[in-house]
Amino acid sequence: MNVHSLLVGTMDKRITILIAAETLLSERGFYGLSMKLLAQRADIAAGTIYCYFKNKDALLSELLIHINMQVANKLFENWTDTQSLQQKYEILWKNTFNSVLRNPQRLNVVDMLLFRPGHDRKEIKNILRSNVFSPLFDFYQQGIDNNTFHAWPIEALLSLSFDSAINLAKHILRQRLEKNEELVAQVRKASWLIIQKQNNQF
Amino acid sequence: MNVHSLLVGTMDKRITILIAAETLLSERGFYGLSMKLLAQRADIAAGTIYCYFKNKDALLSELLIHINMQVANKLFENWTDTQSLQQKYEILWKNTFNSVLRNPQRLNVVDMLLFRPGHDRKEIKNILRSNVFSPLFDFYQQGIDNNTFHAWPIEALLSLSFDSAINLAKHILRQRLEKNEELVAQVRKASWLIIQKQNNQF
Amino acid sequence: MNVHSLLVGTMDKRITILIAAETLLSERGFYGLSMKLLAQRADIAAGTIYCYFKNKDALLSELLIHINMQVANKLFENWTDTQSLQQKYEILWKNTFNSVLRNPQRLNVVDMLLFRPGHDRKEIKNILRSNVFSPLFDFYQQGIDNNTFHAWPIEALLSLSFDSAINLAKHILRQRLEKNEELVAQVRKASWLIIQKQNNQF
Amino acid sequence: MNVHSLLVGTMDKRITILIAAETLLSERGFYGLSMKLLAQRADIAAGTIYCYFKNKDALLSELLIHINMQVANKLFENWTDTQSLQQKYEILWKNTFNSVLRNPQRLNVVDMLLFRPGHDRKEIKNILRSNVFSPLFDFYQQGIDNNTFHAWPIEALLSLSFDSAINLAKHILRQRLEKNEELVAQVRKASWLIIQKQNNQF
DNA sequence: CATGAATGAGTTTTCATTCAT
DNA sequence: GATGAATGAAAACTCATTCAT
What we know:
4 copies of one chain form a homotetramer.
Chain A: H1 3-28, H2 35-42, H3 49-52, H4 56-75, H5 85-102, H6 104-115, H7 121-129, H8 134-145, H9 154-160, H10 162-175, H11 181-193
Chain D binds a DNA duplex through residues 1, 10, 13, 34-36, 39, 44-51, 55-56.
C-alpha cells in the first residue's frame, strides 16, 4: 500500500461517514444521528469516527460544507460561457428549483445543520459565499456592471429573483401543489423581469 | 383571591414558561433547552413545568402557536378597511420586514420548532394558515378576484412578493448590510409591481 | 354536626381511600398506586389523604391490616359452635380455597404489600396472627388438645393441611386447570387425614 | 487475551451485575434496586449495565431465570438413577426445605420478580417448568405411571407433598421455630405418605 | 489505524409530600 | 378539615467520547 492509496482509502471513509450522516439526518432527524448508529451505518466501529473527525460538531460542520459543495455543483450545471445572461439565469433558477423539489430532505438537513446548537451560521455562510457560491455573485455582478440589472446590492437582487426559486419550491412542497410547468415558467420569468433595469423604474 | 385573578396568575406562569423557552431557544439552540434550565430561567421548580404542560413536546407545540399568534398580530398591525390594496401591501411588507429585522432570533426559533424531530410541520402550518394567517391569504385572494394580481395560486404570488420581505431581511442580517431605507422601498415596490396583472404579461 | 357523625364521616373516608388503594393495586400494580391517582379515585384532593394517613407507607400498612381482617372474616364464615372439628376444617379449607380462587388479585395485592420496601413482614404477620387469625390457631390447638391432631407445633400441621388449600388454589390459578370439584374434595380430605393422630404413625 | 478469556470476562460482568441485583433486592426490596445503586454495588458505571442488558426489565427477567437455574440445580442435587422413588423424594424434599431455610431472601426475591409490574408470570413459569424444573414433573409422572402416587394432576400432588417443604420452611422462618430435625422428618414422611395410592383411599 | 467496552454527565419525567389558602 | 399548586429529589436511560488493546 502506498501513500496515495492510503489517502484515497482515507478519503473514501471520510465520505462514507458523511454520506451515512446525511442519510441518518434525513431519515431520523437531528436526534436520530447518534455516533453509534452512524458507525453502524458506515460499517465501522464507533471509535473509528474519531480517527477522521475531531468530534461530532466538527463532523457536522464538514457535512454542511460537503453538502453545500454538492449543491453548488448542481446549481451551475449546464452553464457555458457562450450563454446569455438570461439563458444562464433560467438554467440557474431551474437548477435551484429542481434541486429543492427533488431532494427536499436535503433542505431540512441543511437547516438542521445550520440550526444546531453552538453553530455560528454567519461564519460558514461567509465561507461558502466566498468559495463555492462565488459564481452566483459573479453572475449578478456582471448583470449590474453591464447595466442589465438594477444597480442594487446583490442581496437585494437575490431576494427578488434567485430566492423566488427556493420560495416557490418550498411552497409547492408544503402545499402539495401540483408542479405546474407553465406556472413555474411564469414565476421564473417574472423574477427575471423584476430585476431588469430597463423594464422597471422605481 | 377570586377566580379571575387565579386564572390570570395561572396564565401568567404559562406565559412566563413559554417566554423563557423562547429565550433559551434563541440563546442556546434546540439542545440548549433542557427542562431543568428552563425551570431555572422561569424561576420555578423543574416539576412545576409539568403542571402546565404535559411534556416537553406539548410545550414546544404551544410555544410555536404562541409565537405565530404574536407574529400574525404584528403582521396586520395598522391595517384598516379603508386602505387600498397597495397601501395594505406596503404595511404588510414593512411589518414583516421589520419583524424579522427587529427579532431575528424569532425566525430561527420558529424554524427550530418546525424542524424539531417528530414534528409534523404540515399539520401546524395548516392550522396556522386557516387561522391566524388567513387575512394574508384573504388579501391575496381579493387582489386576484378584482383582477389586480395575476390569477396564479397564492403561493406563487407569495414567492415573488411577500417572501421578498423575509428574504431581504435575512440577507441584511446575514450580510450586516446597512439598512438602507431607499433600497428597501425599491425592493418593496418591485415586489408589488411584479404581481400586478396590468404591468406584466407573460 | 356532632362528634359521632364526624367520626363516622371520617371513618368512611378512610375506608373509601383504602378501597380505592386496593382497587388501584390490583388494577395497575404497585407502580400504579400514585397518591395523585389514588386521590382521584377516592374523589378527594391529593393533600386530603394526608389528613387520614401519615404517609404512603402508613396507608399501605393499614391497607394490609384492613385486607387481612376482611380475609379473616371470610375464613371463619359459616362456623358455628356445634360443628365437629372435621366440619369446621372443611368449611375453613373451602373458605380459604374459594377466597383465593375468587379474588386472585387480592393475593397479589397482599404480596405487593408484604414485599414493599422497608416493610418488616414479620412484624405485621405477628400482629395479625395474634389477632384476626387467632381462631385458626385456636382451632388447631383444640385438635391437639383432644388428641385428634398430631401433637406437633401448629405450623407443622398448617404446612400439611391448611396451606394445601392455598397451594392448590395457586396451582389452579397458574396452571389454568379446570376447577374439578371431585379433585378438590380429594385433596381437602387428604389434607385432613394426614394430620390425624390415629391414622398415621410416624 | 484470547477469545475464550474475553467471553469469560464478559460473562463474569453479566453475572456480577446479576448477583449485585439479587443482593440489593433482598436487602432493600423492589424499590431499592435503582440502576445507579446497582452500578455502585457492581463497581461499574451506570451506563455499563446497559451494555449487558437492554433495560431494567430485561435484567430482572434474566435474574429470574438465573436464580431459577441455580435453584433447580440445588433441588436435584444428589439424585442418582438407582434411587427409589421414596429416596428421591426425601432428597428432593430436604434439598428444597434446606434451600429455603439457608437462603430465605431468595424466596422473597423470586416473588418480587414474579410480582413485579408488567411481568407476565405465566410466561416465565411455563418456560421454567418445561426446562429446569422438568425433572420434578417427570418424577411425579413416574410415580403416577407406576401406580405409586394417586392418579391426580401433578399440581394436586405438589400442593400436598412438595409444597409442604416450602410451607414448613416459611413457617419456621417466620416463627423463628427451632429447626427440630425429628419434626421435620415427620412432616416430610407425612407428605410422602399422603400421596401414596395404597395407603389412602378417598 | 481500528476497535468497542466502558464511562458518567446529562436528559426527561414522575411523584410523595408540603403548605398557604 | 380540605385543597391543589408547587416542590425537588430521584428514577431510568442515552450517548458523545475515551482508551487499552
